[in-house]
Design a protein that fits this description.
Blueprint lengths: L1 H11 L4 E7 L5 H12 L13 E6 L2 E7 L8 H5 L1 H6 L3 E5 L13 E8 L2 E8 L2 H9 L11
Parallel strand pairs: 1-4, 1-5, 3-4
Antiparallel strand pairs: 2-3, 5-6
Helix pairs in contact: 1-2, 1-5
Amino acid sequence: MEALGVAIADALGDRASLLALSGELGTGKTTLARGLLRRLGVEGAIRSPTYTLIEPYDLHGRVVYHLDLYRVSDPEELDYMGVRDLLAERALVLVEWPERGGRSMPAPDLALAFSHAPPGRVVTLSGATSAGAAVLDRVRLPPGCAVLP
């Protein structure tokens, strides 16, 4: 998952984008985000925002927000968190559990759906916008990843 996060970071370049990471607990959403954030230059501990809800990163002028909406029980909570303001910025925004944001969450540029598929995982990537489709065209899958029919 970390290697796939690196590949997605490389494909994103310096684009501002909204990435939606959906799937059950333990399918690798945070691990992929960690690989992506490392590739973008985050040093030190990369914590899951499960309790803080938002982890901001300022990477030499590039702003990245990692959100985890698992504990959000009502989409209106996003207004109190200032999520609309984050989404209006020219930032890279990674959102785990975006479905918990309801209609408050706009369509993502890139949607990643994670699922268990013993002995590994399956991640379905889809570009919901033209920018997201362009990112998908540039993703170079790391060893151990495959495109399934």
